[in-house]
Amino acid sequence: xxxxxxxxxxxxxxxxxxxxxxxxxxxxxxxxxxxxxxxxxxxxxxxxxxxxxxxxxxxxxxxxxxxxxxxxxxxxxxxxxxxxxxxxxxxxxxxxxxxxxxxxxxxxxxxxxxxxxxxxxxxxxxxxxxxxxxxxxxxxxxxxxxxxxxxxxxxxxxxxxxxxxxxxxxxxxxxxxxxxxxxxxxxxxxxxxxxxxxxxxxxxxxxxxxxxxxxxxxxxxxxxxxxxxxxxxxxxxxxxxxxxxxxxxxxxxxxxxxxxxxxxxxxxxxxxxxxxxxxxxxxxxxxxxxxxxxxxxxxxxxxxxxxxxxxxxxxxxxxxxxxxxxxxxxxxxxxxxxxxxxxxxxxxxxxxxxxxxxxxxxxxxxxxxxxxxxxxxxxxxxxxxxxxxxxxxxxxxxxxxxxxxxxxxxxxxxxxxxxxxxxxxxxxxxxxxxxxxxxxxxxxxxxxxxxxxxxxxxxxxxxxxxxxxxxxxxxxxxxxxxxxxxxxxxxxxxxxxxxxxxxxxxxxxxxxxxxxxxxxxxxxxxxxxxxxxxxxxxxxxxxxxxxxxxxxxxxxxxxxxxxxxxxxxxxxxxxxxxxxxxxxxxxxxxxxxxxxxxxxxxxxxxxxxxxxxxxxxxxxxxxxxxxxxxxxxxxxxxxxxxxxxxxxxxxxxxxxxxxxxxxxxxxxxxxxxxxxxxxxxxxxxxxxxxxxxxxxxxxxxxxxxxxxxxxxxxxxxxxxxxxxxxxxxxxxxxxxxxxxxxxxxxxxxxxxxxxxxxxxxxxxxxxxxxxxxxxxxxxxxxxxxxxxxxxxxxxxxxxxxxxxxxxxxxxxxxxxxxxxxxxxxxxx
Length: 828
Description:
mainly beta, 13-stranded mixed β-sheet, CarboxyPept-like_regulatory, signal, Carboxypeptidase-like regulatory domain-containing protein
């Protein structure tokens, strides 16, 4: 009985109050998805769903004409009498009888070339017609998973809140959004979200906003992570081959040219499929294009299909996009992932200009009650009817959400998970109170990720305890975390303990206070240029001792928050006691007759003299991060910053050492850093990182407080980019207590060059060119030049990079090869 009841509710929920509705199918009765349906002479339209169902609210009185438009089929115009509404009408679309111009007979002339040239020449005129507008916007996003395993890396994934069935298949995300948008090319946007719905979360807000929906083929490139070349870009003939497959007449009796576009070179960032161009105006009528994952350097994506349909208004003679869909197919390890975004633009109002203060740094704002709309609103307003699968998902997930968030259910789940077993002393244990939203956890003794080796501690491992409270995090952004970390070194036979308290006050300016303290081992360079994993392998396999450590006893209090849009301040005051450490082990797997260097970075062969004397002082730091032109999205559940990629990010810092046990350890240090990525359209990206600083009254400060630079003597790289490291520089060779300047620049061609080189283009890799320089007083400047290949690997796994590096300091210094293992950054 319950199944029949659910089916009844499902059928009722997909029956809304549209004035005209029905099913669109072909002549054989097969439903046609994504058929454009719009009211003639208006920008009021919609599209059919996957089952061919459509719904349209008519907004004018009297006799109206509704247009049904679908690529490959004849456009149909149906006359509706408004006083007879509501009106049900099923439409059978008839396949188009295509024709070709007689010029095709001449095999020496490709008629598609002339059409594309005209479309390119008319881009400016056509894009200006739709450069400024107000419109209504609707979006729906759905993601499905197929064949998901029971476990991933040993961790059970469960049914994902009721999303998956016993075969690991189901809808894992479904959401919808209504909004009012104001847009001005190229990228001024003001969006107000008026309605938002998320399956399985009755208080959720959808992320399907208009900001990510503007794919404009009148632009030379379209951003899909890499800049894809438009089929009508100014330089499109360098990338595409064209074929005029057919011509046909649309509902306005205008000739439409169907052009097939294919890649000249397989590895280039290009689309494949069809673009439809209107004769005489040379405007875009529709696009139906595929994007292969490897062409946009997204190896786990198989293909993305982008479709756009445009409607024509005779009064203003403007072709405007009314529907768009983006289908995604991806997968790995036998798991298949399918996603679909569907967008509807309606009620356009094109204007010549906007008032000066129309656009601000707030791109999107979400009305506070936008997630409280009831089913009556959605059923009467939604332009694309839900499929039975989607409607069932809403009903089922909402029911599951209520059950699984009830106190009775949460308590039962907690009772099961909170049972203590003796093995949890080794593996770790968590006690959770889901109703009160807090937890207490113990990390255990078998956390292999915490096990490492260094010459001071020998083998050492971490464990710890953590209490977390997130009761008000979802609505107010408030959470509290209290944790302690225990580290034991076997060769040193010493246990060190640190503690941390963090409390965030809100999710608007993200005001956060934190307290830290305890005993720990620290690298002299606080940036930790050599990771525990790399140092462990380097020491045990090659008997290298690159990680230089000292003992730190400390207590600190800090505070951070966004003070104005785009500006974050972080201040801290800390007491520190520093003590030198010495090697306590000579163990290694290989090269047992070799000796480790000492723990003194200034004297690697001196095993007696420490790098500094034991001392203490107070330190105060104040840091500012400035994102110029910062944009943001405002939602009832928080403010979300969106960095403006047109501008750089500036970091300013001041550090003061005071109240030391000896005056000589006190100092002042001012510093600045500027980072920027210069986008070169489809020609790649130039990344830059510039740093400068100066010490004052710091002639005799401890080596701990020197400015240390990120070197690398392991020939292993573990980050995506090398914009913060010198890959052949010894770790502490250029440390300074005076002034310094360093610059890093790295050009990634994103395939622009590599895609055109025969044989090498089969690697589907990217070319990296780098230049790095460091200047300090009394030492000749250090410089590195690099050339390498990124995005290397096997199959879908492109996690490798190889660089040749040559360094100079007072002439040629040395050269070497750096092997980038980017997955190590994930492990850390």
